[in-house]
Design a protein that fits this description.
heterodimer; A: 13 helices; 75% helix; B: MetI-like fold; 2 domains; 11 helices; 74% helix; 1% strand
Chain lengths: 280, 324
Amino acid sequence: MMGIVISCTVVAIVPLLWILGTLVYGGAGALSWEFFTQEPGAVGSGVPPAIGPAIQGTIIIIGLSSLIGVPIGVMSGIYLAEFGGNWFSKQIRFFTDVFMEFPSIVLGVFAFLAIVLILGHFSIWAGAFALSLITFPIVARATEEALKMVPYSVREAGTALGLRKWIVTLRIVIPAAKKAILTGILLSVSRVSGETAPLIMTILGSSQFFTGFDAPMDALPLRIWRFSLQPYDEARLSGWGAALVLVLIILAIHIAVRYWFSRKNTGKGLISRIMEKRSR
Amino acid sequence: MLKKDLVKTSKRGILVDKIFKIGATVAGAYVLAIILVIILQLGWESGPVWELEGIEFIWGTDWNPVEGRESYGALPYIIGTLVTSAIAMVIAVPLSIGVAMFVLTAPKRIGEPLGYIVELIAAVPSVVFGLWGLLVFRMYFKDLIEQPLHEAFGDSIFLFSGNPFGLDILSAGIILSVMIIPTISAISRETMLAVPQQQKEAAYMLGSTTWEMFRLAVFPYSKAGLIGASIMGLGRAVGETMAVTMIIGNATGLSAIPHSLFDAGQTMPSIIANEFIEASPASVHVSALVAIGLVLFLIAMAINVVAHFLVTRMLKIREGAVNN
């Protein structure tokens, strides 16, 4: 049995190694200072088209979607952990889980209908809204799990001091769960940074640097898709380069989160750690 | 004076507390509101195509966006989605359960890192899978697997009769299977961990080998969870967009109904990704694509509701078992 099981695992891992290998092999040649900072320029000129606007766009759109999605997600997580327990909260938890798995392209279509069609033009806002719909359920569930790990006695200690629930939650419980919440936010960022489908019909793509939140914008995954459609060798080279950059960023987030989260505790209790931070 | 202040602040405190609770509840209800609004919005905007085609839109096979001769049907894309997801499931489910069994039985030092590497596959963006599939994988796949299969069985088995090109439903299904392995293996590992240790030990006491232990103690106990994990993988396969769009070959209309594994096809997400931008806004074309989005949304919702129901029930049993 062990043989079969081992070969299953090998078969599952081979594509990842194959992809990483191709990315490094095919994409490393594209990397240069100009590649990261210039506009793509004309196709077919022999120079690999650059990804400056795509990087800028990805950063802007991640920032903006987190700005919308994270507060909603954290508040929703607070509701699930602190005010939950009833029938309604069970439904919300269930549908948050379900919503996390929804096809992201449908969210793009929704954002198109709700924002692009009404405003009359493609915009960063629409893309950020679509991506925030991916961010918030991830953050909500991560926040809930994080808050549940904080012992109930900590809340009781706060309440015993005469503090109101909102102060207990925001000033005691959330700081104690900060690390796990941040982990959830980072994972949502890594997920969102690779999303292509909802961006097609919201930010559309562009070959220029940022011109305004109401204008179309480029993003790394979108640019990779455009490169893949072009029949030029230098476009392919750039496609591999852009994919290498994107995958490296995402894997770095994942590995950093794991390392950071699995580091051993200092052995001190939660409260003493909080007190330590306070006194600093 | 001091007393008055205290009363004042505490009154304000109560008010803030109420606002805080209401704010959190609203944020929690946001997800329900969004789901409802999405269904209503997609239903409303897809109105024109339902008017034009009626319910026949679901099983129609035409796809003609030319003005004056417009005619739309979703069947080819529904079939494409079903076939690619089925291929992905057939490959991914056994492999994923194998991976989960490996992670559970191997020594921790080897099993855990390898399990983590498998999970990292889920982090690779769909578009990168597409790029790799389009520029690298399909070349090898066409020459090493499809061509020999076609030459050996092309005349006798209809599945292999099409002319291999590399951009077809089989290669799309295989890429999909790679992408859903981490989902299924992670969740089935979780549910197999939920099997009480006593059950496993009892099976070992009866003289089982590791395989027999899995068959006697683990699989029957975690069946619902394993099915739920597989259905969750199915949900992911159904909604997967970019990788499929880049590899499936993008046929439309009647020709998108595959007659063999080597025919080009089209799935529901891929037709939206391909045509949404090209369609002129507020045309029936857009509304047909929105209608496909609505069908996709409802299918994905149904799949995920079933999957989560099965998995959470399984994990609840674990909590019960541990507490007793």
